[in-house]
């Protein structure tokens, strides 16, 4: 190698190893709408940021041991979560792969061949000092051995920052995948909690109907006896039968709903519906503890830190930003360094002799002179992809704030509705009893009794439904806030 070329190659390699010129734009998190406070907070006390950032088994605050057990099994059994875990593992592997491109690659090659020729002479074969067979026999000819061993290396210095941009983009994508995993986990846990609480509400409805159906059956027997002795017309018996059949039909509707909810829970915990069952609450238990925990709501700025879907969208913006630099690096020449050290010999033992060694060191550079605007198009496409990612990030933020506002409004309204429906149920129960007393005294027809009983039953069921909706709304609010909260 000429002495004038070697120093310049070494200087170029050293410069490339130190630091390259980044061709991509510096990343800044895009701005997004961020209100000072929630519109629907309405008297709620904002949680301290440290508390709002705490995550944990939020479902335990509902005080149901079976819900705690089921929610914990989602982490290890739900297949959507398992798929998200696998996707995150793939993303991390891609980061390692991209980071490896920053370092030289080294290869070791070895070969051995044995070749010969056939001659027309005769005589005895001879062996030369290198072990090759020359001549011999009636066929003549010769046999030669050739062995080669080489160590090669190649490296693409990251002069323009393209490789580092690839690593940064892969890291951002891996972080987005981690946020997707958190979203999948939170979604599965929230869906399970909501389905379980609805199932328990169905149990409460069935317990309520069981008591009502038992009462309707007693009344049907009483009306049948009264009709048999001629006290009442047959129409009163028909009304009692209709009322009982309708209540029994409603119970069968609840049986179907419960089965669907139980099947959905089975899938969420990674089991087949045939292998999973949740025992109902006792049929005689007409009351159900609809405990609704108070959810401390943080200031809006913490939502950007808590929501995993927002975090995933922001990390995808960062990855798209790095793709601009990767596309722009095509404007600059690609530079490569290569070297090799090897030896060849006719005997294996001679491969390691210094006299048979040969080395090489090379520098390559390539620059695209004309590509009909392809590079410019790729840069424009990368910029457009970045703008799309920014728009999706901002839309995700807007949707998140709307989600929180919706759940806050629902929580506030449902609390008021529950109180009103509690009063309505108590009043309907009193009316039912008064009408039944008047009927027994012969003052009103049985039709009025039926109407009063239907009104009372509907009021009780509406109260149970509202109580259950408050619970599922609390679950939805936890999800809207990005996870659980810290409970002192």
TrEMBL record:
Protein location: Cell membrane
Signal peptide residue numbers: 1-22
Record flagged with keyword Hydrolase: no
InterPro entries xref list: MdtP/NodT-like, OMP_efflux
Topology with respect to the bilayer: Lipid-anchor
Keywords: Lipoprotein, Membrane, Palmitate, Signal, Transmembrane, Transmembrane beta strand
Region (Disordered): 106-137
Assigned protein family: Belongs to the outer membrane factor (OMF) (TC 1.B.17) family.
Identification of the protein by name: Efflux transporter outer membrane subunit
Organism: Massilia norwichensis
């Amino acid at each position: 190698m000429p002495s004038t070329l070697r120093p310049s190659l070494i200087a170029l390699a050293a410069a490339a190893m130190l630091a390259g010129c980044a061709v991509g734009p510096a990343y800044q998190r895009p701005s997004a709408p961020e209100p000072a406070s929630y519109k629907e907070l309405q008297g709620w006390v904002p949680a301290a940021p440290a508390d709002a950032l705490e995550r944990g088994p939020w479902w335990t605050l509902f005080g149901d041991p079976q819900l705690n057990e089921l929610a914990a099994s989602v982490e290890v059994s739900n297949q959507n979560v398992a798929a998200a875990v696998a996707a995150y593992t793939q993303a991390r592997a891609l980061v390692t792969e991209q980071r490896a491109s920053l370092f030289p690659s080294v290869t070791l090659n070895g070969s051995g061949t044995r070749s010969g020729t056939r001659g027309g002479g005769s005589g005895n074969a001879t062996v030369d000092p290198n072990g090759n067979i020359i001549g011999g026999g009636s066929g003549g000819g010769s046999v030669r051995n050739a062995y080669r061993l080489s160590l090669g290396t190649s490296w693409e210095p990251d002069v323009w920052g393209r490789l580092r941009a690839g690593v940064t983009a892969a890291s951002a994508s891996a972080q987005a995948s981690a946020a997707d995993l958190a979203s999948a986990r939170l979604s599965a846990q929230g869906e399970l909690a909501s389905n379980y609480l609805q199932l328990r509400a169905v149990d409460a409805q069935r317990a309520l109907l069981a008591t009502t159906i038992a009462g309707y059956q007693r009344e049907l027997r009483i009306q049948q006896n009264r009709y048999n002795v001629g006290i009442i017309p047959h129409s009163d018996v028909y009304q009692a039968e209709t009322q009982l059949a309708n209540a029994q039909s409603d119970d069968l509707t609840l049986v179907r709903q419960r089965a669907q909810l139980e099947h959905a829970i089975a899938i969420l915990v990674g089991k087949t519906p045939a292998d999973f069952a949740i025992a109902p609450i006792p049929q005689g238990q007409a009351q159900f503890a609809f405990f609704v925990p108070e959810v401390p709501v943080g200031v809006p700025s913490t939502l950007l830190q808590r929501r995993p879907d927002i975090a995933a969208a922001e990390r995808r913006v960062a990855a798209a930003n790095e793709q601009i630099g990767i596309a722009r690096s095509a404007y600059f020449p690609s530079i490569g360094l290569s070297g090799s050290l090897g030896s060849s010999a006719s005997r294996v033992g001679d491969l390691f002799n210094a006299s048979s060694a040969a080395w090489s060191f090379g520098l390559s550079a390539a620059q695209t002179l004309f590509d009909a605007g392809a590079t410019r198009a790729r840069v424009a496409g990368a910029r457009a992809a970045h703008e799309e990612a920014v728009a999706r990030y901002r839309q995700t933020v807007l949707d998140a704030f709307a989600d929180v506002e919706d759940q806050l409004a629902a929580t506030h309204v449902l609390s008021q509705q529950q109180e009103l429906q509690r009063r309505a149920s108590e009043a309907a129960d009193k009316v039912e009893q008064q009408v039944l007393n008047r009927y027994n005294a012969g003052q009103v027809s049985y039709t009025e009794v039926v109407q009063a009983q239907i009104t009372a039953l509907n009021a009780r069921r509406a109260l149970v439904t509202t109580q259950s909706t408050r619970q599922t709304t609390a679950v939805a609010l936890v999800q809207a806030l990005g996870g659980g909260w810290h409970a002192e």
